[in-house]
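HUMAN: Would you supply a protein with fold tokens?

ASSISTANT:
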Amino acid sequence: MTDPAILAAVAAAFVLAGLVKGVVGFGLPTVAMGLLGLVVAPAHAAALLIVPSLVTNAWQLAAGGPLRPLLRRLWPMLAAIALGTWLGAWAGIGLLAPAHAARASAALGVALALYAVVALAGTPRRASPRMEAATGPLVGLATGLVCAATGVSVMPSAPWLQALGLQRDALVQAMGLSFTVSTLALAATLAGGSLDLVAATVSSAALVPAAAGMMLGQRLRRRISPAVFRRALLLALLALGLWLAGRGLG
């Protein structure tokens, strides 16, 4: 983790991930996990993501309205995320099983590819209140398991949240809330293992390139079409995900 080449690659990954978030408003964990997975093991990549992810998610929460209505509505899904992450860690899948590093890399690739495909397909159909109540815990549990296995917490929570018909600011805040719970649950499972003092220090330092990337992305947002950039990003994530999946299964 102290290799200058690896540290340079980590910094570059967070600059690009921050750039993406600055332009399109999301994607820092997804892009960072995909790129970091090329140079370090998925468990170490997830550990490095903890501090930048928590800070950016906190920003999303602060930018929205009151949290109580969202917490009242989403708590079954949020509780299930924490449970699913713990169950995944207890079962020794993915990130916390070094012997299964190749499978974790493949799972990360599949998660990235699925996320890209779902996002490219457009906004999902509106979920009815009855369907929301029935599927929320299942979506949370699946998200926790995927997070434990890959470090990526956007699937299937993000498409499900988009299907609730929330207003734009509420949707951004809801995603920030979901990602915060996922990150905290993942940090708890990684503590004492991949999330050691060195990883925590590097993760804290990663705030600098991530913030620099976000500021640059915010400037670029005024000059290019976010829709065009978003589509190019999703296609790149799809290609990256397929490559990681092929490498992990090969």
Summary: The mean pLDDT is 80. The radius of gyration is 17 Å. The chain has one domain: 4-249.
